[in-house]
């Protein structure tokens, strides 16, 4: 559209936002806990969405997994990496909007709590991200703002000129605290974000025009309403 001004960059969470990998993480968690004689429910798995690996490992240890954090992380990451390698489970509309932003010349970053062993192969396969910030490449993972601030710094842009997309409470908290414009995507968790956060029920509802509007300060509600 004439006069459309896009953001300096768009910053993307990965799991649950761009790709539907949460079922992979949940399956890996259940398998690991059950292998150690414990029980891991879907409710526990959903509550852990968006957590850093240290937090996730601690919860799994509390559920009976008798392994150190590094071994838990390796088991989960290996399982999810293999699942994604078998075929990228795109969320509806995700690949389209990544491509549209790339064609429009907007820099994009992948900002994820997943470790580099999962994030890097995905990013290489997609080939549309200028920067990757994974959970094991920052000192303070989400909900701290460091991951998003790091992405903006690496891209050479002002974080307040960026739009970030997130599907978890900790991810939204991280992005909001960084100073970015934020879009909460209701995926596996229905979020209740701050009033300054835009919302959508699907990336199918996101286009260059909506991203431009959010970048200039509009707060949009693009969810399905019953």
Automatic annotation (TrEMBL):
It comes from the Bacteria. Pfam families: HAD_2. InterPro entries: HAD-like_sf, HAD-SF_hydro_IA, HAD_2, HAD_sf, PGP-like_dom2. SUPFAM superfamilies: HAD-like. Coiled coil: none annotated. This is HAD family phosphatase.
